[in-house]
Amino acid sequence: MDREKELRRIFLREKPVLIAKELMKGRTTITKISKRTDITNANISRVIKRREELGVIVRKRKGRKNYIYLTEYGKNKLKFVDEHD
Question: How far is C-alpha 22 from the chain's CA centre?
């Protein structure tokens, strides 16, 4: 499956869309996303891992925290989440 089709497929489900909305707000952590969306850390980790493989996000460690950021590619591809809010 090509990358664009895969991105569309995985973002058209409820939990991934809620996670995407949190990522669009800027730097965050899995714990913050979990608290704001009422989604378990395990589900968020699975979704984050897949998006990291697709180049949509990147994780950076600062001290004891792992921050999650959207890449420029991710920001461009997730604009439809804001547009369809």
Answer: 7
Q: What is the pLDDT of residues 24-81, one digit of tens each?
A: 888 899 899 888 888 888 988 888 899 899 999 999 999 999 899 999 998 888 776 6
What is the pTM assigned to this prediction?
A: 0.69
Let me know how long the chain is.
Answer: 85
Contacts of 21 (CB under 8 A, 6+ apart): 81, 85
Q: How far apart are CA 36 and CA 55, in angstroms?
A: 24
User: What is the rounded CA–CA span in Å between residue 15 and residue 63?
Assistant: 28
User: Which pair of tokens denotes residue 10?
Assistant: 């995985």
- Residues paired with residue 59 on neighbouring β-strands, in sequence order: 68
